[in-house]
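Incident log, structure service

09:12 report received: a user says their structure output differs between two submissions of the same chain.
09:20 pulled the input from the user's history:
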Amino acid sequence: MQDLMQSLMQNRYLKNQVLPYLAILGFCLFPMLACAKTILIVGDSLSAGYGMQPQQGWVYLLQKRLDQQYPKAHKVVNASVSGETTSGALARLPKLLQMHAPHVVVIELGGNDGLRGQPPQMIQKNLAQLIQKSQQAKAEVILLGMKIPPNYGTAYSKAFENSYKTVSQQYKVKLLPFFLAGAAGKKELIQSDQIHPNAKAQPILLKNAYPYIVGAL
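09:34 re-ran on a clean worker, output below:
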């Protein structure tokens, strides 16, 4: 049996084309062949680890913690890009879904859209499409909510925040109301640019997101 498994795994078509789709359906070819669940992080600089070493970011810490609790059971793919917007991610997502066949998609986007003053209706529409495409690929979706600084005005800030609530309810996905809770507004946890969380804040971000991610697994 072991020789048969090794031979099958050496078959490039089976390995690259067939097994990922079997994994999406939630079963393995053989009971002894572990089905590692892939977690795809689609985010911006907050998840890309801007201004830090890669091993300091919350996504790296996520993989480390999963490896400790569930050895070899989960693979984290960080597809986050600094400066990313919902529109940019929407263009990249189909290829990412095809390439990685994720079980879970974590969407951490919208902050850059808000800082650029993009209409909340457009942000909401893009978030909805990101969720739809992920669900069509049979992935569980987690949405990490953001808030915009108060200097953008109460009306805009409220509409921006509500865009996350609306799509999460419409598509029945789990929403972390504010990803930066516990870190935002604390000088000791923010980089010198006064925008990005520093290395000390990363365990807090992981603590915020971890229950939602584990719950989806």
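09:41 both user submissions now match this output. Likely a transient worker issue. Closing.
09:42 reviewer note: The beta strands are 37-43, 74-78, 104-108, 140-144, 174-176. The two ends are 29 Å apart (CA to CA).
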